[in-house]
């Protein structure tokens, strides 16, 4: 990292917004789980889209790699630099404009946290459709870059369905502004969709127009326990297609045990598996909930939350899982997308696979059963090097054998780039590479992400 480049970056963003401190860079070069470490040469924090573009242009001109960072909550090491990169942080792009309550939309900076956007929407009597347990640190720019899903995807969809406009700093140092004030705009390429899910490989999202939704007048939450996973999946299939479904979450007993032991959050029901159900809408769905659970093969009486406080208690087990996964060291994470019919078979096979490769590890399964999107986490998994790679590769193959996708909502990042061909055909990958080459011919932007 040349002194001349550092000086140029300081001129662009201000000297106080550039750091080459080894301790700062080391802290910024580790992934969210603490499992993977990279190397960086400098950290730069632009304050406007134009500054982002100027930083990109300066780095491109001298052939320095750039890794983009938002809230750094990536679970596939998507923000870990591999080439002594410049780290470009969007953390100063936090502006949130006044909410347009008529059109139900808001314009925000890419560095705004999910929680901040949720508060702004709520203050205007509206709701932002995507919710994550990492809401206090995840930024909406990063969430759009990975097309994040989350806890209420079954009702509102993922980030791609919330993003209706973008500002993007392109690799050539220009700024693309794609905004439309109308709801229906069928004028050529959908450039907004191109950058959502691109994981920062095509440009740096600096601002977004986000769709907002009415707040449901009624909400009812329940947690039901099951001894048999197939019985839970059968119930989940019914609720997935139910009127007013807002959330449908799977939690296994191991996750409940961990949250009880380490956070004092008790499981609300007994059973090897728990299904959290939330129904919401203009009408009260309590009777519908009871009717759909009546024929389910439950392990006991469900716990039902009729008011906000009771519902929050029921959500605690699900939302607390992420906080306890690191109790035994950095967990090994798998983001699993499967057809509902394949989940039980995959779960049994995955537990057997883990027992062969890492018998000391504790498999913990939870996730968004409505989309077949599950998070398999291995806690107390001390594998490293070749042994970890062998387990990871075997698990990716097992997902593919069960008709699944190697990534559902966390993206590909650096962890899954070797397995992209399990989810995409050769022609798919060639087309993606062509788009990457057209926008970033030298490949300097997020070079470790997505492609080998």
List keywords for this structure.
Alpha-Beta Plaits, four-stranded mixed beta sheet, FAD, 452 residues, alpha+beta, FAD-oxidored/transferase_4, 17 strands, oxidoreductase, Uridine Diphospho-n-acetylenolpyruvylglucosamine Reductase, domain 3, seven-stranded antiparallel beta sheet
What does this structure look like?
Keywords: FAD, Flavoprotein, Oxidoreductase. Pfam families: FAD-oxidase_C, FAD_binding_4. One of its GO terms (biological process) is respiratory electron transport chain. Its cofactor is FAD. Belongs to the FAD-binding oxidoreductase/transferase type 4 family. The strands form 4 sheets. The chain has a 7-stranded antiparallel sheet with strand order 14-11-13-12-16-17-15, with helices on both faces. Helix 1 runs antiparallel to helix 3 (49-62), helix 9 packs across helix 11 (308-324) and helix 12 runs antiparallel to helix 13. Among the domains are: 105-214, 2-Layer Sandwich (Uridine Diphospho-n-acetylenolpyruvylglucosamine Reductase, domain 3); 218-324, Alpha-Beta Plaits (2-Layer Sandwich); 332-410, 2-Layer Sandwich (Alpha-Beta Plaits), CATH 3.30.70. It is globular and about 70 Å long. It has helices spanning 3-13, 22-28, 49-62, 114-123, 140-145, 153-156, 191-195, 229-240, 253-263, 286-294, 308-324, 343-357, 385-401, 426-439, and strands spanning 18-19, 40-44, 66-69, 85-89, 105-109, 126-127, 163-169, 175-178, 204-211, 213-214, 218-226, 245-252, 273-281, 303-305, 332-337, 362-368, 373-379. A hairpin with a 4-residue loop joins strand 16 (362-368) and strand 17. The protein has 452 residues and is of the alpha+beta class.
């Amino acid at each position: 990292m040349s002194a001349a480049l550092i000086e140029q970056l300081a001129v662009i963003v201000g000297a106080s917004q550039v750091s080459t401190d080894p301790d700062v860079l080391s802290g910024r070069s580790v992934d969210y789980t603490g499992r993977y470490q990279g190397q960086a040469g400098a950290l730069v924090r632009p304050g406007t889209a134009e500054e982002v573009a100027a930083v990109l242009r300066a780095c491109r001109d001298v052939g320095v790699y750039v890794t983009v960072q938002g809230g750094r909550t990536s679970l596939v090491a998507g923000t870990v630099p591999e080439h002594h990169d410049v780290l470009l942080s969007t953390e100063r792009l936090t502006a949130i404009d006044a909410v347009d309550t008529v059109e139900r939309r808001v314009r925000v900076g890419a560095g705004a946290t999910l929680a901040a956007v949720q508060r702004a929407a709520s203050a205007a009597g509206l709701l932002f459709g995507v919710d994550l347990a990492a809401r206090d640190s995840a930024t909406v720019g990063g969430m759009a870059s990975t097309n994040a899903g989350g806890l209420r995807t079954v009702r509102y969809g993922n980030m791609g369905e919330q993003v209706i406009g973008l500002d993007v700093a392109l690799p050539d140092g220009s700024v693309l502004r794609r905004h439309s004030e109308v709801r229906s705009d069928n004028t050529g390429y959908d450039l907004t969709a191109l950058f959502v899910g691109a994981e920062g490989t095509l440009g740096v999202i600096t601002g977004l127009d986000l769709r907002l939704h009415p707040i449901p007048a009624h909400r009812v939450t329940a947690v039901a326990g099951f001894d048999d996973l197939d019985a839970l999946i059968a119930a989940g299939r019914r609720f997935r297609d139910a009127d007013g479904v807002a959330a449908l979450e799977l939690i296994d007993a191991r996750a409940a045990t961990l949250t009880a032991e380490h956070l004092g959050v008790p499981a609300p029901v007994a059973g090897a598996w728990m299904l959290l159900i939330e129904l919401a809408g203009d009408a009260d769905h309590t009777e519908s909930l009871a009717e759909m659970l009546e024929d389910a093969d439950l392990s006991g009486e469900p716990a039902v939350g009729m008011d906000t406080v009771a519902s929050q208690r029921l959500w605690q087990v699900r939302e607390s899982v992420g906080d306890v996964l690191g109790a035994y060291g950095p967990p090994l994470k798998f983001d699993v997308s499967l057809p509902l019919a394949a989940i039980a078979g995959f779960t049994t096979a995955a537990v057997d696979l883990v027992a062969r490769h890492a018998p000391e590890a504790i498999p913990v399964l939870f996730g968004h059963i409505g989309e077949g999107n599950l998070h398999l986490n291995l806690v107390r998994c001390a594998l490293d090097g070749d042994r970890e790679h062998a387990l990871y590769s075997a698990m990716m193959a097992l997902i593919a054998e069960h008709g699944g996708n190697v990534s559902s909502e966390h993206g590909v990042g650096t962890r899954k780039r070797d397995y992209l061909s399990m989810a995409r055909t050769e022609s798919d990958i060639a087309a993606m590479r062509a788009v990457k080459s057209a926008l970033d011919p030298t490949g300097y932007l997020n070079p470790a992400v997505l492609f080998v």
